[in-house]
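Re: that chain you flagged

S.,

Sorry for the slow reply, it's been a week of failed gels. I finally had a moment to sit down with the sequence you sent. For the record, here it is as I used it:
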Amino acid sequence: MARSVLENRIVKLEGRNPARPYEHLSDEELDARLAAISVRIEAEAGVKMADYVEALTRAVSADEPLPEGMTKMDIQGLIASFRNLASIRSRHAQ
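Prediction finished late last night. Pasting the structure tokens below so you have them in one place:
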């Protein structure tokens, strides 16, 4: 896929690709961002992320009512994102 003129200039000026905004971060910086996101999600949900993902998975599987404005595909995407985040966090913790 061709990059726009603006993207090319950003890459040239900043030395990083705007399509991959986190690749320039060190492992420590990435882990700090992931930890902050995890804490925020857990605070908003009021439960640990793993428990929240499990509850969402059960709700989708049982065809329970979904949060207003969200489709089944939205929830499945959210579940996949949470699982991916948890996986990345566990890899960085090792």
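What I noticed first: Residues 34 and 85 are 7 Å apart (CA to CA).

Talk soon,
D.
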